[in-house]
Write a structure and sequence with these properties.
heterodimer, A: 196 residues, alpha/beta, 6-stranded parallel sheet, B: 602 residues, mainly alpha, 26 helices, 6 strands
């Protein structure tokens, strides 16, 4: 109820929307694609980044803090490389300890209701491999069903994932272009007018 | 001549004890009976090796005084308060019923009323020393019967005071006209008790602190004895029982951090003096009188023992003591007590009791002390199958002294561990040898005791036999090693967690069989090292992984090398080897972790 009113208010006042990127890469310094993407949106107004592996190298997540960040956001992005058809381990931990009964789901758990949710993922395999006839037997969407359902259970609106395939073979130019696209997409969501 | 006669006497006593007690224990008769028999043998009616019995008896009564002090230390006031119903209820009932019955019996056999009253009162008292010894031997403290027996004994101790006050009056009752003489002793008595309580609460702790700060153990021991003797004499000057005074002092000190140290220092003196006491009781049994009329004396003696046992049995049923404990309870207090000697001596001195009666009664009391161990034996063998340990069948509350963890050392190292355990509601007993550490943290509500943890007796008092863990966190590396050796020897089932000063010390500890130790600076160094990595551009997660990896390999190297640390030469080359090994491992790990295509990280 409250978030609905808030949404109306935002639309009414044309307030900028907030984005929270929950970023999970265990060795970001070694990353090409994801690091470039995240660096591109660092220090952007209305975009907050929670770098899980950097904040919690021992996996001891500060639940209260992460929940506060979620509350402020209108769009929640889970940004990570695909490892073994799923997310890096800390995302699982984050889902488990942060999206608690009574907060994100269940009785009284409507903190995330009505918010937007999106995955921003990168895969090493090429797009063709992620198909019924392809090497990986299933589409990427099918691999991402668990997260999709998680978002739905929490009452969030699941947007199409922002994705890129074949990461080992991407050129610097391609990576750069992808990163820009990422930034533009997020910035336009915030509604913030770029005054440059 | 004086000196050598003292030594000779000491020789006799010690020999008697050393011979008689082991034999008596072997025969299942208990230490007390051994002492009594030893006394009978060496005394004027036996081999006559000792003849001045009176002096020794008075001197060794001090053992009883020390005993009550130690008992007071073990108790705490809240526990005492909880027992008040038993103390006054059971105690009062026992004393009055026994005194009346025994006194009545006396009148029936033709004794005059005054003597019968005195005899009844005196004989209704029980032997604190013997009863407590037996309760301790069977580990029955904190059980229904143990608590009840103790409460009754306590009441008897209190009751002795009015008895002592009243007796002189009976003696000179014919010429009584000084009513004021009742008030002055009472006033003196109350005054002294108040002084002890006030002094104990406010003066003692700072004084102990000063003494402890000198760090000279003998001075602490000397002060403890001084304290007990001083209080004893003070009480005596006020006409009160010495034992009651020291008992009060013990109770006051039971909450202090010096309690364990006091216990350890006083215990050996108490042990020896009590032994001496029982020997002298044995010596003072007037066998001459006995052999004149053995049967009547035995009959009378058994009569009063029986009366007391029956009365106690009834009280036990009334106060709901479990059946299997009631027999023990009735017997353990059925004998006559050491205060009876004092009472009868005073009574005959003031002319209240004819000396022929006082001598007779003294013999009866001494003999009755012999009966108790024998009766116990009979009870165990024939009536009580469960003589092993009735405790196991009860669900009694565990004494708080049985904390699962003992932490030795409450400085920087120990405090953190204690806090972690404490916040998880794990009971810990804390020992520290520096009064400054203790003083400071007591404010925060920790149970801390002053003492040197490398001493086996302190560890034992602190509960090492029942504890699950012993955490050694003191900063003296040699003392730590010494303590480990002692613990492995005397408490082999106790798990040790030990602080190691450095790698070499860790080698020593590992060689002694310590499984769990931490080098005191190691984790801190690693932690700062990890931070260094992050400052140099490694991500937090990677830095942590690398640090963990380093630690793992370091531990593996440690395990391989600790056996050889004594062999210097070999050790040095091994260390060099280990360093090379580590580098190689790091390189190969790097290769594994970083495949050629960084891009596969995504």
């Amino acid at each position: 109820m409250v978030s609905l009113l808030k949404k109306l208010m935002i639309q009414l006042m044309e307030q900028d929307k907030n984005i929270l990127i929950v970023y999970a890469h265990p060795f970001s310094e070694k990353s090409r694609v994801n690091r470039t993407m995240i660096e591109r949106v660092t220090d952007t107004p209305h975009i907050k980044i929670s770098n899980l592996y950097e904040k919690y190298p021992d996996f001891h997540i500060d639940v209260k803090k992460e929940q506060e960040l979620l509350l402020e956001a209108d769009l929640i992005v889970l940004h990570h490389p695909i490892y073994w058809f799923s997310s890096p381990a800390i995302i699982k931990e984050w889902i488990f300890v942060v999206l608690l009964y009574g907060f994100a789901h269940g009785e009284g758990g409507d903190a995330l209701r009505g918010k937007q949710f999106m995955l921003a993922v990168s895969a090493a395999g090429v797009e063709e491999s992620y198909s019924q006839k392809g090497f990986n037997n299933f589409t990427l969407e099918e691999f991402l069903r668990p997260i999709e359902q998680t978002a739905k259970v929490c009452g969030m609106h699941y947007k199409d994932p922002f994705k890129i395939f074949g990461t080992p073979h991407l050129t610097k130019g391609q990576i750069d272009a992808h990163a820009n696209e990422y930034k533009n997409f997020l910035v336009s969501f915030t509604g913030h007018k770029i005054t440059k | 001549m004086e000196g050598s006669s003292f030594l000779f006497n000491a020789l006799v006593y010690l020999s008697a004890a050393v011979v008689a007690v082991p034999l008596s224990k072997k025969a299942g008769l208990g230490a007390v009976l051994g002492y009594l028999i030893a006394g009978m043998l060496i005394g004027p009616w036996g081999l006559s090796l000792i003849t001045e019995v009176e002096d020794i008896l008075h001197f060794s009564e001090f053992g009883v005084v020390l005993l009550l002090f130690l008992i007071g230390l073990e108790l705490n006031p809240s526990r005492l308060w909880k027992l008040k119903k038993k103390i006054f209820g059971m105690g009062g009932l026992q004393l009055t019923s026994s005194a009346l019955a025994i006194g009545g019996l006396g009148i029936l056999v033709g004794v005059d009323v005054k003597s019968a009253v005195i005899a009844g009162l005196g004989l209704s008292l029980s032997s604190t020393a013997m009863a407590l010894q037996m309760i301790k031997e069977r580990n029955l403290f904190n059980t229904s019967s143990g608590d009840s027996a103790f409460s009754i004994l306590l009441f008897q101790d209190i009751a002795v005071i009015p008895m002592m006050v009243v007796l002189p009056l009976i003696g000179v009752a014919d010429s009584l006209h000084e009513s004021s003489s009742v008030f002055i002793p009472v006033l003196k008595g109350v005054g002294v008790i108040v002084a002890i309580i006030v002094g104990g609460r406010f003066l003692l702790r700072p004084v102990f602190r000063i003494i402890a700060d000198t760090n000279i153990r003998e001075i602490f021991t000397a002060f403890s004895l001084l304290l007990v003797i001083g209080i004893g004499l003070l009480m005596q000057a006020a006409g009160l029982s010495m034992a009651l005074g020291t008992f009060l002092a013990g109770v006051i000190l039971s909450g202090s951090e010096y309690r364990h140290e006091l216990e350890i220092d006083i215990e050996p003196f108490k042990g020896l003096l009590l032994g001496l006491f029982f020997i002298s009781v044995g010596m003072s049994v007037n066998f001459g009188l006995f052999f004149e009329n053995p049967f009547p004396i035995i009959a009378l003696m058994f009569s009063f023992v029986l009366i007391k046992a029956l009365a106690l049995s009834g009280i036990g049923k009334l106060f709901k003591i479990p059946k299997q404990e009631n027999a023990f309870f009735s017997l353990v207090l059925s004998q006559g007590g050491e205060f009876a000697f004092v009472l009868f001596a005073i009574s005959s001195a003031v002319g209240a009791l004819p000396s022929k009666y006082s001598e007779l009664l003294t013999v009866m009391v001494a003999l009755s002390m012999v009966t108790t161990p024998l009766l116990m034996l009979l009870n165990d063998r024939f009536f009580n199958r469960n003589s092993e340990n009735p405790r196991t069948n009860q669900d009694e509350k565990i004494d708080e002294a049985e904390n699962p963890v003992i932490i030795a050392g409450f400085g920087r190292f120990g405090q953190v561990i204690a806090r972690l355990l404490h916040s998880n509601r794990i009971g810990t007993t804390i020992l520290d040898h520096n009064p400054n550490n203790i003083e400071m943290v007591r404010k925060f509500g920790y149970k801390v005791f002053y003492g040197d943890a490398s001493r086996v007796d302190l560890l034992r008092t602190a509960g090492a036999e029942k504890a699950t863990l012993l955490i050694l966190a003191t900063d003296d590396r040699d003392a730590l090693t010494e303590t480990v050796k002692n613990v492995k020897k005397y408490f082999p089932n106790l798990t040790i967690l030990c602080r190691a000063a450095d790698r070499i010390h860790a080698y020593e500890l590992a060689a002694l069989g310590v499984e769990h130790f931490t080098q005191e600076t190691y984790q801190s160094s690693l932690s700062l090292g990890e931070k260094a990595l992050t400052q140099l551009g490694f991500g937090n997660y990677e830095a942590k992984k690398l640090t963990n990896m380093f630690q793992k390999y370091d531990m593996e190297t440690f395990q391989k090398h600790y056996r050889f640390h004594k062999d210097e030469v070999k050790h040095i080359s091994l260390v060099k080897e280990a360093r090379k090994e580590l580098e190689e491992i790091f390189e190969s790990d790097e290769k594994e972790f970083n495949s050629e295509k960084d891009a596969s990280w995504g």
